[in-house]
């Protein structure tokens, strides 16, 4: 089944599941527990498909563990000209392009190169190929359960899901507090997991306030300044002093499993992917 671009569907889903955000006074950092940050330059790279060795894309967990039966978010990098053989996966995954040009579709489909900010889903069991054509190619890949496995096409099956290819030019951006939001998947009712892109304007300074029990954010574009006295680094060590400013490049991650406030700065327009099960408020300090 070929993938389809779904800009209209994205807008409809947004209207069905979106919630109202509003400005609130700036408050002191209220983080009750440590959040975790992982800088893109400090991730531990391995292979997405270890059986193929250096012919496989590189992979690095940001959260979770792709080898276990658990939800996971990871970075995947491809060399220019990468072209996979037809294959399937045992589980459904989501992909967001951070850098480069990616194609993911049926083996016979015409190439549709997806640039930075594009989003796609790959249903479990569906035969497909993946290709990359940028000088460097990096994506964020997310699964709701694992392990993440690659299997031959002769084991293909229909799990009832339909694939999506959403080119960055067809994202539907809606006003969202002090920024903009493009809904991607899920249900935004409190307690339900969902995923969105959040766009911070150039010169943004303010707070992202989360009431979630699961909050995970990945920098897709731009450069994010994160200020939080409760942050820990990738080794779970406390950041050296209160109000430490951490500069996060595309591919970096921060998140927590309790409600938290994040003080954010962006000199240039910055896009975050956020997976959460709670409501968010995005306020400026101006």
Automatic annotation (TrEMBL):
Keyword tags: Signal
Pfam families: DUF4437
Signal peptide: 1-23
InterPro entries from the UniProt entry: DUF4437, RmlC-like_jellyroll, RmlC_Cupin_sf
Name under which the protein is recorded: DUF4437 domain-containing protein
Organism in which the protein naturally occurs: Thalassotalea euphylliae
Source organism phylogeny: Bacteria, Pseudomonadati, Pseudomonadota, Gammaproteobacteria, Alteromonadales
């Amino acid at each position: 089944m070929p993938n389809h671009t779904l800009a209209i569907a994205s807008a409809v889903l947004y209207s069905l599941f979106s919630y109202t955000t509003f400005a609130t006074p700036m408050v002191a950092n209220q983080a009750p527990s440590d959040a975790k940050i992982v800088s893109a330059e400090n991730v531990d790279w391995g292979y997405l498909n270890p059986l193929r060795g250096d012919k496989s894309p590189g992979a690095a967990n940001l959260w979770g563990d792709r080898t276990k039966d658990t939800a996971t978010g990871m970075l995947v990098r491809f060399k220019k000209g990468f072209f996979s053989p037809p294959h399937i996966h045992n589980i459904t995954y989501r992909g967001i392009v951070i850098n480069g040009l990616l194609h993911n579709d049926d083996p016979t489909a015409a190439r549709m190169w997806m640039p930075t900010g594009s989003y796609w889903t790959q249903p479990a069991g569906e035969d497909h190929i993946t290709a990359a054509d940028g000088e460097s190619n990096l994506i964020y890949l997310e699964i709701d359960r694992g392990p993440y496995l690659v299997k031959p096409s002769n084991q293909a099956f229909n799990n009832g899901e339909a694939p999506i290819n959403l080119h960055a030019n067809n994202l539907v951006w809606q006003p969202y507090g002090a920024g903009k939001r493009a809904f991607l998947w899920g249900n935004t009712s409190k307690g339900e997991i969902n995923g969105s892109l959040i766009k911070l304007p150039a010169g943004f300074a303010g707070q992202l306030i989360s009431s979630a029990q699961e909050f995970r954010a990945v920098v897709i574009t731009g450069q994010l300044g994160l200020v939080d006295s409760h942050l820990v680094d990738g080794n779970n060590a406390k950041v050296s002093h209160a109000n430490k400013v951490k500069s996060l490049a595309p591919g970096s991650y921060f998140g927590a499993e309790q409600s938290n406030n994040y003080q954010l700065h962006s000199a240039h327009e910055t896009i975050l992917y956020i997976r959460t099960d709670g409501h968010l408020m995005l306020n400026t300090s101006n």
